[in-house]
Structures are given as C-alpha cells and as structure tokens.
C-alpha cells in the first residue's frame, strides 16, 4: 500500500503506551485534504472548513456553502435517521451548466457551424425529483433525455417539455415502443428512434406506414474502436448493441426501398461508460465520423451525430487513465468532439451536424452524498497489555520482552520472533499444554507487538515483503449503518471506488486504519478498497471511535447508477433521501423521501403486515393460555412488533 502523506509523529494507536503529547495535534485540515484527496475529486463542490467539517458549495465558487456536519445534525433533529442520502439540486444544475458551457466554448473556439444538444440518459438515475429538476435546469440549453427501455420512454415522454430538446430512444424495441415513440412526435416531442437491431427497421417501416408518421431515425453503429476499462465490451465486433457496417448498409437499402431514407437523420455510438483515456474517445470519434460522412454520401440527410456516454468521473482525483479516474477534462472532451467532427465534415464538404452527447455519470454523480454512521469497531486487539506478572508462562515472558524492546533497528526480527512464539503457543494449546487464558494473553501481546511494528513501518520508506500485509491484517473493522448492496452496489459488484471519508473531526489526526463492514449478514457486505493517489488502498484512515459520540462518514460521487441497482439483501430498504437547495439565508429542504419501512420491504416479498401481526397475536394468545407468557410480556412483544413494521429498516 502507498502512503501519500507523512504522519506528523509516531503515535501508537488507541491506548498508547506513551501518552500523546500536545505536539501530536499538529494535524491540520490541509493534511486531511491531502490524505483524502478532496481537491482531486471534490473540487469545486466539497472542501473542509476551519472547524474540520466538510462543506458543500453546490454552485462551486459562484455561491454560498453549507456545513455538511451541521446539516446532518439538523436533519437528525427532524427525526430523519441515518443512513441519509442528501441530494443537492444546485450541484445538478451546475453540472449541466458546466457541460453545456464546455461545448459552447469548444464551438466558439473552432468556429463550429452547428450546435450542441445534450441528453441525459434516464437509466443513470430515474428518480422523479431528479429528472424533473434536470429537465428544468436544462431548459436554457434545450437539454433532452435518453430512454433505454419502455418504462424510461414513458418517463421521458411525459416529463420532457422543453421546446427543441431531443428525446433519444435507444435499447431493444418492440412495436409498442416504436409506436409510442412515433406518436410522441404528435405531442411536439422530437423522438429519435435509434435502430440497434436489424429487425427493428421492418417494424419501424410498417408502423410509420400504418400511422402515417415520418419518424426521425438514427442508427447505432458497432464501432471496432473500443473504450478502455470495465465497459470496453460495449463496442467491438462482439458487442451486445449496435449494427455492424454491413447491417447499417442493409438498413439504408431497406429504408430507401420503402421511400424512407429521408428519415435517417442520426448516427449514434457508445463505446462504454467511464472511459478513462481520451485517446479511446478520439479513436472512436474518427471512426464514427467516417461512417457519418459515408451515410450522408449514400443519400441520408443526416444532421445529427450522437457520441453516446462515456464522459468519465475522476473518483480518485488522480487525473490518470486508471479505471477510477480519467486523464482529460470535460473541456478537453468537448474540444475533441467538436474538432474531430468539424475536420471530418470539412474534408468531404459536408455541413456539420448537431452534436449530441448522452453524458450520464458526469452529470449525475456529484449531486448526491450518502451519510452513514459508525456503530462500533473491532477494537479488541487494541488495548494495552497488562504488565508482566511473576510466574507467567515462558512464551508470555518472551513476547512481553519483544513488546518492550521493539524499535526501528530491530522491528523485522521482532516481528519474526513474535510470529514464531504465537505459532508455538497455538501448537502447545492443541496438545493441552496451554490454558485458554494463557493463549488469550499471548494473542493480545502478539497484536500489541504488531501495533508497534506497524507504527515503525509507516515511517519507513522501504517495507520488507513479509510486513507488506501487516497493516491490512492489523486494520480495525468499523461497523457501519449501511447496506452496501442497497446503497453502493457497484462497490460490491465491480469493485468500483468511491471517495469515502469522515465529514467531521478533519482537524484531528486519523490514527486508526480500518475497513468497513455493513449491516448485512453477508461477508461480501464490506468495503476494503479505497481511493489513493497511486492505485488502491486496502485500509482507510479513520479517527478513533468514541462510543456514544456520533461518527459520520460520507460516500461521495455515488449519484449515478447506485440507487436503482441497489437491492434488498437482508431486507435493508431504500434510505431516507433529502433534497437540499441553497437559499440566500442558508438552505431549504425541498423534498423528503422517506426510506422504506419494514412493512414496505416485507410487502415486496409478498408478506402482509396485517397478516404477520395477526399471526403474532394468535400465537401470543395461545402462549397465554398455556401460561408460557405473561400478559405484560405479550403486550410488549406485540407493541415492538407493530412499531418495527412502521419503522426504518436500518439501526437507530
Ligand atoms: C449507459 C449509457 C449511457 C450513459 O453513459 P455514461 O458513461 O454514464 O455517460 C449513454 N448512452 C447509452 C447508450 C448507454 O447505454
């Protein structure tokens, strides 16, 4: 593991043998900023204030900011329990404005004779309040929507009310989908039906003739250029979506034969999400531009080029082509799109098309922050060992000596010796020569030695091989009030990295190293990979947990894909969600969407709360008759059962 900072002073973990001195608190908020890489991934929305709290500036440097810790405290006073999903609509607005500003700048810079009309892919986040905000904030830019399925089309058709905005219809389509999209034209929408499968063209031709509507058509090309990283299979010859060059020609011929080639207006491609290298985008653009000009040469009117999604988010703030990052800015991206298309059209004397991008992740990720609290830790290995008593076992004495004499010049030897004594203790125990108490004593001493060694190792430039994993195996587990499966499914399913950090105490040195374990009874319900400047960290620096005092962590940049892909593992339901908008005086709560109650999640698996309650009542009645339960106990049980049904699924 790599450390991107130098601790100010060698400090033992909790229960330090040496009392920490005042000098230990030279930790500053700048140290936290660097450690958690906030500038890298959080600018301009997130920073730390003098109190050591995360602040949110939803409008970047153009507007006010609010203290996230105080906000959470205020919401808890309104009985909004953790975990809490906070949505900052001003951030969403800012993301849309920035994306459009980047394209406007690129268009001006290259004197591009066309315009940009972005669309938001609804699949990134279908929540009604968010889509409604998005349409409203996108109005000045004629920002549209992209649907990838029939239900998403229903959302888009009803919600999009911006004159001139585009409605891109992707995904697998049956007759009902195509008919509904075409009829959308009669409502004043501009639905582009993007052909992804060869047989869709016949349905489109028949439906068009039946309804007497001239549709707006596009084709999705299967490029041979691939994206990079996780979603690179979205392109290439074996891709699930899109038409090969041969298929595209077939579409052209069939449309021409039906007298509908004049409907073919758009070329679409999508090389995958989170494209981390700008070179992949450029390669794809070059190939797509050639297909575009060839289609125009074949007689299709064209006029629209849709470059799909893929615009990345810098989750680790490293500005590299690592999968959790991207090596380009939105402005670089816009410049490349505009310049490539202009050049390709100029070479063939063609008018330039209207440019469309379907940027989802880049628009929706920043607007939400998930706040959850720590319920406890596995600090058992962290207490200071009792002093040596006369007559203790020889192995105890040996380990105690190591504990007292480890320093920077002998830590490697100390580690090997301690390990050997621990193994000896285990085999003595197996043969009945060591009591349970003695073995426990030896294990505690062993971990105390390891803690000292880890402290020394952290100061060293070179880490011996056998000690590489010590930090990881020494890490505490912080138990968090959260279901990874519900709130950060990509972290479990595809090892996606999200910035995670405490939202307060950032003026204090985080002296613990920890992994996170969630509430589910599933060993996969954990987070043990964290962002780092180089690669990935196995442990997260956290503050020592003080029982009885709230310790809040935030998961950032999770506004795209996570909510809808979340699942009800162990029946942990959707979290409370609060929409916050900044006002000149502070903020206002626009909407509160209460998370699932237990009765709700039970109904998803077909249990009726009433029936369950009735069964408990009947069983209590029987137990009463058998004198197995008292009346007071029966009443208490039923009250708890009833309360639980109406209560949040998380711990309070
Ligand atoms: C998923 C998807 C997008 C969104 O991609 P992002 O990388 O989130 O911007 C856009 N277009 C299509 C066709 C998609 O399938």
From TrEMBL:
PROSITE patterns attached here? ODR_DC_2_1, ODR_DC_2_2
Q: Which GO terms describe its molecular function?
A: arginine decarboxylase activity; metal ion binding
Q: Which residues form the Arginine decarboxylase helical bundle domain?
A: 392-471
Record key words, sorted: Decarboxylase, Lyase, Magnesium, Metal-binding, Polyamine biosynthesis, Pyridoxal phosphate, Spermidine biosynthesis
Q: In which pathway does it act?
A: Amine and polyamine biosynthesis; agmatine biosynthesis; agmatine from L-arginine: step 1/1
Its BP terms in the Gene Ontology are: L-arginine catabolic process; putrescine biosynthetic process from arginine; spermidine biosynthetic process
Q: Locate the Arginine decarboxylase C-terminal helical domain: which residues? A: 598-651
> Where does the Orn/DAP/Arg decarboxylase 2 N-terminal domain lie?
115-364
Q: What is its EC number?
A: 4.1.1.19
Q: Which residues carry this modification: N6-(pyridoxal phosphate)lysine?
A: 123
| Cofactor (UniProt) | pyridoxal 5'-phosphate; Mg(2+)
Q: Which Pfam families match?
A: Arg_decarb_HB, Arg_decarbox_C, Orn_Arg_deC_N
Query: In which residues is substrate bound?
Result: 305-315
Which SUPFAM superfamilies does the UniProt entry name for this protein? Alanine racemase C-terminal domain-like, PLP-binding barrel
Q: Which NCBIfam families match?
A: PRK05354.1 (NF003763), speA (TIGR01273)
Give the family this protein belongs to, as stated in its UniProt record: Belongs to the Orn/Lys/Arg decarboxylase class-II family. SpeA subfamily.
User: Which HAMAP family is this protein grouped with?
Assistant: SpeA
Q: What is this protein called?
A: Biosynthetic arginine decarboxylase
Organism of origin is: Vasconcelosia minhoensis LEGE 07310
Gene name as annotated: speA
């Amino acid at each position: 593991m790599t450390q991107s900072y130098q601790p100010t002073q060698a400090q033992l973990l909790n229960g330090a043998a040496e009392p920490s001195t005042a000098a230990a608190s030279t930790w500053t908020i700048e140290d936290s900023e660097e450690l958690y890489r906030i500038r890298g991934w959080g600018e301009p929305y997130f920073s730390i204030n003098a109190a050591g709290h995360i602040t949110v500036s939803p409008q970047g440097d153009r507007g006010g900011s609010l203290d996230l810790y105080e906000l959470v405290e205020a919401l808890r006073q309104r009985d909004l329990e953790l975990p809490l999903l906070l949505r900052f609509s001003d951030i969403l607005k800012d993301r849309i404005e920035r994306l459009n500003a980047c394209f406007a700048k690129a268009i001006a810079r290259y004197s591009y004779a066309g315009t940009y009309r972005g669309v938001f892919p609804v699949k990134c986040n279908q929540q009604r309040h968010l889509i409604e905000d998005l349409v409203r904030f996108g109005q000045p830019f004629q920002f549209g929507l992209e649907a990838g399925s029939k239900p998403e089309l229903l959302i888009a058709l009803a919600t999009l009310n911006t004159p001139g905005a585009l409605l891109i219809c992707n995904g697998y389509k049956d007759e009902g989908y195509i008919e509904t999209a075409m009829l959308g034209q009669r409502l004043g929408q501009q639905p582009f039906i993007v052909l992804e499968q060869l047989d869709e063209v016949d349905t489109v031709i028949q439906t068009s003739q039946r309804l007497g509507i001239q549709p707006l058509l596009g084709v999705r090309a299967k490029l041979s250029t691939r994206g990079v990283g996780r979603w690179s299979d979205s392109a290439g010859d074996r891709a699930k979506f899109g038409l090969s060059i041969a298929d595209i020609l077939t579409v052209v011929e069939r449309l021409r034969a039906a007298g509908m080639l004049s409907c073919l207006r758009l070329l679409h491609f999508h090389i995958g999400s989170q494209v981390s290298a700008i070179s992949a985008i450029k390669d794809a653009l070059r190939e797509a531009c050639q297909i575009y000009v060839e289609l125009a040469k074949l007689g299709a009117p064209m006029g629209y080029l849709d470059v799909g999604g893929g615009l990345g988010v810098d989750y680790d703030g490293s500005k590299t082509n690592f999968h959790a990052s991207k090596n380009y800015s939105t402005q670089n991206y816009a410049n490349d799109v505009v310049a490539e298309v202009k050049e390709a059209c100029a070479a063939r004397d063609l008018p330039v098309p209207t440019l469309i991008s379907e940027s989802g992740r880049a628009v929706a990720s920043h607007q939400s922050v998930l706040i959850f609290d720590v319920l406890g830790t596995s600090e058992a290995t962290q207490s200071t060992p009792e002093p040596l008593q006369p007559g203790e076992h020889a192995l105890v004495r040996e380990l105690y000596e190591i504990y007292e004499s480890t320093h920077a010049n002998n830590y490697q030897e100390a580690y090997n010796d301690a390990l050997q004594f621990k193994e000896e203790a285990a085999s003595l125990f197996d043969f009945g020569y060591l009591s349970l108490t003695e073995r426990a004593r030896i294990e505690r001493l062993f971990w105390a030695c390891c803690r000292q060694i880890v402290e020394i190792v952290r100061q060293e430039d070179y880490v011996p091989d056998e000690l590489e994993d010590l930090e990881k195996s020494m890490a505490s587990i912080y138990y968090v009030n959260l279901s990874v499966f519900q709130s950060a499914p990509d972290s479990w399913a595809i090892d996606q990295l999200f910035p995670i950090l405490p939202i307060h105490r950032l003026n204090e040195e985080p002296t613990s190293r920890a992994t996170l374990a969630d509430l589910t009874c599933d060993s996969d319900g954990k987070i043990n990979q964290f962002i780092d400047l180089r690669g990935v960290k196995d442990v997260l620096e956290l503050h020592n947990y003080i029982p009885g005092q709230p310790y809040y962590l935030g998961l950032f940049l999770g506004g795209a894909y996570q909510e809808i892909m979340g699942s009800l593992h162990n029946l942990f339901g959707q979290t409370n969600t609060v929409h916050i908008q900044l006002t000149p005086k502070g903020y206002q709560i626009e909407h509160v969407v209460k998370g699932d109650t237990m009765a709700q999640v039970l109904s998803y698996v077909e249990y009726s709360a009433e029936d369950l309650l009735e069964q408990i009542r009947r069983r209590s009645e029987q137990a009463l008759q058998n004198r197995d339960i008292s009346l007071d106990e029966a009443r208490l049980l039923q009250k708890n059962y009833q309360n639980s049904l109406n209560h949040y699924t998380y711990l309070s």
